[in-house]
Design the sequence.
């Protein structure tokens, strides 16, 4: 197991290096002068002196290999430079906003797993029955409904009609823990609805597959009860593909909660990325993209390790 974890860690580090290098190369492959693009507004050409000063500040006058070393050094030290908009360190803004986005994603993943795995398992047990059809219908509706529509509906129901939760906003946890959790519930729940549909469908398919395995038939032949078979033989093995999909979905959501943060006025990382792109703030965009990419790789590493703990055969095959 330790050999497998070490192997997967090395692969993850290699992928991080690939991502950081790819970001650097892509930025230099884009046609045009980045400094000139950043300073040009409304089709008006930028002042040549300002362009030259910005190029010097960004280190674009140095040879490519020196720029790459500086790029890697900044990544390893966590120094992504300063924002062009307000001069604040980019890493500080990322450190401030990233936990807020992770809160929404973690809350959504928790809710989706709590409701998705049991319902998917129940649908598999009652395959082709009325309960299975109803659960499949609800998951289809949840998947096909845009997130901004879901957000608007939950605000209408829980904030305006029932008046039990605030419609949006943000309060730091340290300032008011209860109010923070109340403000977090609706955005996390909105993200959880689509994620629940994915987890439910994956759980159903995975449980159906495991129910056909030989060791499950053997357990039935030995006279074990259904609940014991599900608990000891089915659910644990069925969780492996479910956790894999959950990890991939969580990685995608790190940079994909833009609409949710906008609807609920939640100051997270996704909204920060959109504002940085709109302002053409080069250091902010690079810092956020690399942070999201590294987190995505890290989540996949965690999923691989958890899967190996659930099924030790994985570590024997892949190490």
Sequence:
């Amino acid at each position: 197991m330790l050999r497998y974890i070490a192997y997967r860690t090395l692969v993850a580090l290699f992928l991080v290096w690939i991502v950081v290098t790819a970001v650097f190369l892509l930025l230099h492959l884009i046609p045009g002068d980045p400094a000139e693009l950043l300073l040009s507004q409304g089709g008006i050409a930028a002042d040549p002196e300002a362009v030259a000063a910005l190029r010097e500040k960004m280190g674009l006058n140095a040879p490519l290999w020196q720029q790459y070393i500086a790029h890697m050094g900044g990544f390893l030290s966590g120094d992504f430079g300063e924002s062009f908009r307000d001069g604040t360190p980019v890493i500080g803004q990322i450190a401030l906003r990233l936990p807020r986005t992770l809160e929404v994603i973690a809350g959504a993943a928790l809710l989706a797993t709590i409701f998705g795995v049991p319902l998917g398992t129940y649908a598999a047990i009652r395959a082709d029955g009325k309960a299975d059809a109803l659960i499949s219908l609800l998951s289809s509706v949840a998947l096909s409904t845009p997130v901004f529509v879901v957000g608007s509906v939950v605000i209408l129901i829980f904030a305006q009609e029932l008046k039990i939760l605030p419609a949006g906003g943000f309060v730091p946890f340290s300032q008011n823990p209860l109010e923070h959790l109340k403000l977090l519930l609706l955005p996390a729940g909105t993200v959880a609805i689509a994620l629940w549909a994915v987890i439910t469908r994956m759980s159903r398919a995975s449980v159906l597959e495991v129910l056909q395995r030989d060791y499950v038939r053997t357990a039935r032949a030995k006279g074990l009860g259904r609940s014991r078979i599900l608990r000891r033989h089915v659910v644990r093995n069925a969780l492996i593909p479910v956790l894999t999909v959950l990890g991939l979905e969580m990685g995608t959501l790190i940079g994909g909660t833009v609409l949710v943060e906008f609807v609920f006025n939640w100051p997270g990382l996704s909204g920060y990325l959109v504002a940085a792109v709109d302002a053409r703030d080069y250091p902010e965009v690079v810092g956020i993209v690399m942070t999201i990419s590294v987190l995505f790789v890290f989540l996949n590493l965690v999923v691989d390790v958890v899967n190996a703990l659930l099924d030790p055969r994985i570590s024997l095959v892949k190490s």
